[in-house]
Amino acid sequence: MARRRSNTLTEAELRLMDVLWQKGEATVADVTASLPPPPIAYNTVLTTMRILERKGYVAHEEAGRAYIYRPLIAREEAAGHAVGHVLSRFFDNSAGTLALRLIETERPSDEELGRLRALIEQYEETP
User: Fold this and answer.
1) Peptide bond into 38 cis (omega under 30)
2) Residue 5, pLDDT score
3) Fold of 11-71
4) Contact at 8 Å (CB) between 48 and 57?
5) In whole angstroms, how large is the CA radius of gyration of the chain?
6) CA distance 122 to 105
7) Which helix (H) or strand (E) holds 69?
8) What are residue 66's phi and psi, to 5 degrees?
9) What is d(CA 43, CA 96) in angstroms, rounded to the nearest whole number?
10) Which of 124, 107, 24, 36 shows the shortest CA–CA distance to 68?
11) How far is CA 87 from CA 30, 78, 92, 101, in A?
């Protein structure tokens, strides 16, 4: 059975997108050279960039013999896709249930607790 295509980023795709978000645009050679360890082979980076292009995350322009890739979506938008995927798969599309799970799992910092209190007060004031 063929593997279902995912619209969210895999770990390998995210590593490449991190480089593009940081640089703004880059060739495959630039991306390969900028990756933190462990290294990824040039051909693997090239194949993954083509997959990212099919998924709509990047586009390229030709510059001589090289392709210059640039991100089409911001990191925040990709994060939103990932959160939406987790919400639908594990939390029945309930952001509240996800938030409770996160807070139960790890104690928020004092700053985060303050932000949570302010949000709760805001929601209590507006019906």
Assistant:
1) yes
2) 54
3) Arc Repressor Mutant, subunit A (1.10.10)
4) no
5) 19
6) 24
7) strand 66-71
8) -100, 155
9) 42
10) 24
11) 35, 14, 6, 12
CATH 1.10.10.10 residue ranges of the chain are 11-71
Tell me: the pLDDT tens digits for 65-119? 999 999 999 999 999 999 999 999 999 999 999 999 999 999 999 999 999 999 9
* Coil, strand or helix at 68: strand
Place of tokens 């083509």: 50
Only one residue has tokens 């880059």, namely 26
Q: What number of other Cβ atoms are within 10 A of residue 9's Cβ?
A: 20
Taking residue 25's Cβ as centre, other Cβ atoms within 10 Å add up to: 15
Q: Is residue 58 a contact partner of residue 21, using CB atoms and an 8 Å limit? A: no
Residue 59 burial by Cβ neighbours in a 10 Å radius (0-12, 13-18, 19+): middle
Tokens of 1: 């059975």
* Residue labelled with tokens 């991306």: 31
- Residues for the chain: how many in total? 127
